[in-house]
Design goal:
The protein is of the alpha/beta class. It has one domain: 3-Layer(aba) Sandwich (Aminopeptidase), CATH 3.40.630.40. It is 37% helix and 20% strand. It contains 6 helices and 6 strands. Strands 3-2-4-1-5-6 form a 6-stranded mixed beta sheet, with helices on both faces. Helix 1 links the parallel strand 2 and strand 3. It is globular. The protein starts with 6 loop residues before the first strand and ends with a strand. The N terminus is likely disordered.
Length: 198
C-alpha cells in the first residue's frame, strides 16, 4: 500500500453470545467491509477506503474459511451501500459469534503509519469517541434515516452512551480478541502496531 493509506484500523465487536468460547466447535464470523457505494469513507489521491476494506474483508474471509472452526459471512461482497442497521441486523439474525468491521484511515502526517485495532466499549479518549462518531455518521447518508432510527443522531452525546452500554458486557472478550488481531497484524505486515484502543 502507498503512504496515502498508512493507518489500518479494525473495529472489533463481539456479538451477544452467552456461550463460552471453548464450548463452540464452529464460530460464525460476520466480516463487515466498511463503507461502500455512495459512502467512500476516507479518500486519498488514489485509493478509497470502501475499496480497500472490501479487498481486506474478502482476504480475511478466505483465510478464516480455510480453518474448519470458522464459518464466514460478509455484509457486502461488492461496491454497494449497506445501511448500518442492516450490517448489525445481519450479524444478529445469523447469531454471529463475532462481528469484525474493517476500516482504514488516511492521515496527512507522513510519520504516522501502522495498524491499530479498536474494541468498541467504554471510550477512554475523545479521539476514540470521534472515530466511532465519524464511522457511524454514515447513517446520515441513508434515505429516511430519521424514520429508520427514530431521530437518532450518531453524532450526539446520547449516541456515545448507547454505544458504551451496548458494548460494556463484552468488553473484556473484545479487548482480548483485539489484542490478538493487532499482534497478528503487526507480525504479518511487519508494520508497527499503534496498539489496541477503546
Amino acid at each position: 500500500m502507498r503512504k496515502a493509506w498508512p493507518l489500518w484500523l479494525g473495529i472489533v465487536l463481539l456479538g451477544g453470545v452467552g456461550t463460552s468460547f471453548r464450548l463452540l466447535k464452529s464460530y460464525l464470523v460476520v466480516v463487515d467491509a466498511g463503507h461502500g457505494g455512495k459512502d467512500p469513507g476516507a479518500s486519498g489521491k488514489v485509493y478509497k477506503e470502501k475499496d480497500i476494506t472490501l479487498a481486506v474483508a474478502r482476504r480475511l474471509a478466505a483465510l478464516l474459511e480455510k480453518d474448519p472452526h470458522f464459518r464466514v459471512r460478509l455484509t457486502r461482497d461488492d461496491d454497494t451501500f449497506v445501511e448500518l442497521n442492516r450490517r448489525a441486523d445481519t450479524a444478529n439474525k445469523l447469531h454471529a459469534d463475532f462481528f469484525v468491521s474493517i476500516h482504514c484511515n488516511a492521515n496527512p502526517k507522513k510519520d504516522i503509519y501502522g495498524s491499530e485495532t479498536y474494541a468498541l466499549g467504554e471510550h477512554k479518549s475523545q479521539e476514540n469517541l470521534s472515530v466511532v462518531m465519524r464511522e457511524n455518521s454514515a447513517i446520515l447518508l441513508e434515505e429516511g434515516y430519521q424514520r429508520t432510527y427514530e431521530g437518532f443522531d450518531p453524532n450526539s452525546e446520547e449516541a456515545y452512551i448507547i454505544f458504551s452500554l451496548m458494548q460494556h458486557a463484552f468488553l473484556k472478550q473484545s479487548l482480548r480478541l483485539a489484542r490478538r488481531i493487532e499482534d497478528n497484524m503487526a507480525q504479518l505486515t511487519r508494520r508497527p502496531s499503534r496498539g489496541v484502543r477503546q
